[in-house]
Amino acid sequence: MSDAFVRVDGLHRSFDVSRPWLERTLSGRPRETLKAVDGVSFAIRRGETFAIVGESGSGKSTLARMVVGLLTPTAGDVVIDGVSMTGRADRSRRKELRRRIQMIFQDPFASLDPRWRAGPIIAEPIRAFGLADAREADRQAADLLRRVGLDPADARKYPHEFSGGQRQRIAIARALAPKAEFLVCDEPTSALDVSVQAQILNLMRDLQDALGLTYLLISHNLAVVRHMATTIGVMYLGRLVEVGPARTLFAEPRHPYTRMLLDAVPDLAMTGRRRMAVLGDAPNPIDPPAGCAFHPRCSLATDRCRAQAPALRDGVACHLVD
Ligand SMILES: Nc1ncnc2c1ncn2[C@@H]1O[C@H](COP(=O)(O)OP(=O)(O)O)[C@@H](O)[C@H]1O
Ligand code: SF4
Ligand SMILES: [Mg+2]
After folding, report:
1. Domain covering 4-115+158-307, topology
2. For range 24-38, the mean pLDDT
3. Strands 49-53 and 231-236: what pairing?
């Protein structure tokens, strides 16, 4: 895709989850590797919201951390605006990318330093990236507070003096402070009350419209994704099983897992389609099922599904969809 702003190319990430050496030696257990992300590729156009959905443990946060450069991939690459995040060349352009890409986490209390007041929290990246002197950074921080719906006077308060939703607003202001263009948001509203969630999502949309931001939005919640996404990627055990325009995916889900996820959302009116029961839990990623990893939970599974993993073709990875 030539007009891609962000290109994620065959990303893999494994973790060594072996027992300590002595215990392995005594028990005769082999080394164990967990494939958290197992060959994920997609592209995001500028100004788009690409959402990743999937159950807990499917590899969403691992993927997000690789996209922003907090975690090194085992294989694959992330290319943002033509700059490879893993390549050795382009050191200065990569540094510049770190300014343009920011991450928003689920728990703003953990991501904001409790000893700092809101103003300096927001002003810090402006100064750290050399974008302005202290005075100008403080002025911009006040502007940003207003922009995210807070009072410039809030600059003097500490994180614990704010509500959860207000803290997430501060985290967003801090992410925007270095004039970021691409925000990777990992479950940004999952820790908030439902009414507050909607306010934060609306703020994110308004900011996107005003500033032309590109989002990678990660959520286990399809209702959140439906409200926000242009394109959705459904993740299962480290792989994308379906990718497509949000509207199409909600109207005509093709992968059995996507259908199962949609059926599990109580407030989505799914007309004219037989509902599929949610079967069992996600399998252990240390010892994933052979063939299609979804087969133990799939009511349509055949012998072929148990033997051979389906590739992602035309936006879906399922032997029965052609
Ligand atoms: N640092 C790590 N060491 C070992 N295993 C990890 C590590 N980080 C994540 N995992 C494992 O990788 C899998 C995917 O985790 P994660 O990316 O956090 O999923 P999600 O965000 O979708 O819940 C999980 O099985 C998790 O236990
Ligand atoms: S490949 Fe087989 S087991 Fe996997 S989702 Fe499709 S039908 Fe189900
Ligand atoms: Mg996560």
Report:
1. Rossmann fold (3.40.50)
2. 91
3. parallel
